[in-house]
Amino acid sequence: MSKQAHDPVAADIQRLIREGELYRIKVVHAKALVAQAMRPDALMHGAVDHAVSLAQARLGGLMQPGGLSNFNYKALMPYAITVGSFLARKRLIKPVLGVAALAGVGVAWLLKRKRSTG
What we know:
The chain crosses the membrane at residues 92-111. It comes from Duganella zoogloeoides. Keywords: Membrane, Transmembrane, Transmembrane helix. This is DUF3618 domain-containing protein. The chain is mainly α and 118 residues long. It has a domain at 72-118. The protein has four helices and no strands. The chain has helices spanning 2-37, 40-59, 73-89, 93-117. The radius of gyration is 29 Å and the shape is elongated. The termini are far apart. The model has no long low-confidence stretch (mean pLDDT 82).
């Protein structure tokens, strides 16, 4: 009879020990996830993903049927001014113009190549 009285207690103790082990494993896993998320490359990847999704959400109207015909410049101007102000503050105007010129040359080359092959 004494054995039957102690079995539920021993089972509860074993269950609590297993729950404690599982909790400790979850804590170690959470620490590893936080350490991974705080790495600079992960932070940069998250920031780029966030910026891309924000741009897609804000400028998604351009991709709809009609495109630029019903483009609302007044809605885009606050964003353009913010970006322009940031570039001016960081003195990045010349590098941005250089990148834009290179992009233009690249697009022109691609269009020329497409016309010659098509």
